[in-house]
Amino acid sequence: MPIKIPDQLPAKDILENENIFVMTEYRAIHQDIRPLQLLILNLMPTKIITETQLLRKLSNTPLQIEVEFLHTRTHEAKNVDPEHLSSFYTTFDQIKNRRFDGLIITGAPVENLDFEDVDYWQELCQIMNWSSRNVFSTLHICWGAQAGLYYHYGIPKVPLPKKLSGVYEHTLLKPQSPFFRGFDDTFTMPHSRYTGVREEDILRIPSLELLSVSKDAGVFAVKSSDNRRFFITGHPEYDADTLALEYERDLARGLDIDMPENYFPNNDPTQPPIVTWRAHAQLMYTNWLNYYVYQTTPYDLSEIDEIGK
């Protein structure tokens, strides 16, 4: 949350130049406050695990958030109890006439399929199109980021020589961006994917901003210039053991898979991983919620439609 200071205090300009969020008395007086309406489109097969990971990040802020979960009607989930979906999830038909402050679109284990071959692709396109007029800011994660970049900007995903799995160091290209406010100059994040997007494809779109990259993992963070769409190619929400569980699963399936990089101490999978990304991951979600949803979304959600035009 910001610090509130007098409008003409000399420190105001100094703090803002240091990328510290301050709020003037005038702005504070004129703020309308209400709970944020957040929708999560959960495309992961391990629904309960993903729910828990995301809610852990979203709950650790001073903001009051009302969260709803969405699943695709055109895909039959095989790894979750149907009763869980009916109790805690809704479908697009049930919310399409509503508006939300924020939307999160998760990853999905379908990277090796062409987008158009994913059984719920048309429904996902419908949701992404709807989000432009009915959601103030959308955060796309991993495959969800690749799908969003492809749908909105025509940017293709490209296959990698082998699965990218591990914890990688990243650098900031736009350190003054509020999205990375409070970040160190370098930071680590987990990745787990078979495909990626090319940096040059991002840079050729004037309405996109490349925010962060990794020497080993490539493009990490991209946003639209109007701050309405964010694309994260990694998994900041991952738990300490998520990569280990994926590695064990892939081995059990007989896949020719490498050990996650920079993850197990001494590259020994019998040793518990040491988490190096938790603080920055929390900060990233908090920054998105605060600066790009809470501080900027209209109090009257019906105004989102006009903003999206």
SSE arrangement:
Layout: E1 3-5, H1 11-17, E2 22-24, H2 25-29, E3 36-41, H3 47-59, E4 65-70, H4 82-88, E5 89-90, H5 92-95, E6 100-105, H6 121-134, E7 135-141, H7 143-153, E8 158-172, E9 186-196, H8 199-203, E10 208-214, E11 218-224, E12 229-232, H9 242-252, H10 278-294, H11 304-307
Summarize the structure.
By secondary structure, this protein is an alpha/beta fold. It has helices at residues 11-17, 25-29, 47-59, 82-88, 92-95, 121-134, 143-153, 199-203, 242-252, 278-294, 304-307, and strands spanning 3-5, 22-24, 36-41, 65-70, 89-90, 100-105, 135-141, 158-172, 186-196, 208-214, 218-224, 229-232.
Q: What is the general shape?
A: globular
Task: Report the average pLDDT across residues.
Answer: 89
CATH superfamily of the largest domain: Class I glutamine amidotransferase (GATase) domain
User: What percent of the residues sit in helical stretches (DSSP H or I)?
Assistant: 25-40%
| Uncertain runs | 1-5
What gyration radius follows from the Cα positions, in whole Å? 20 Å
Number of domains: 2
**How are the strands ordered across the major sheet?**
5-4-3-6-7-12-11-10-8-9
The CATH topology of the largest domain is given as: Rossmann fold
The CATH architecture of the largest domain can be given as 3-Layer(aba) Sandwich
What's the helix count?
A: 11
Order of helices and strands: EHEHEHEHEHEHEHEEHEEEHHH
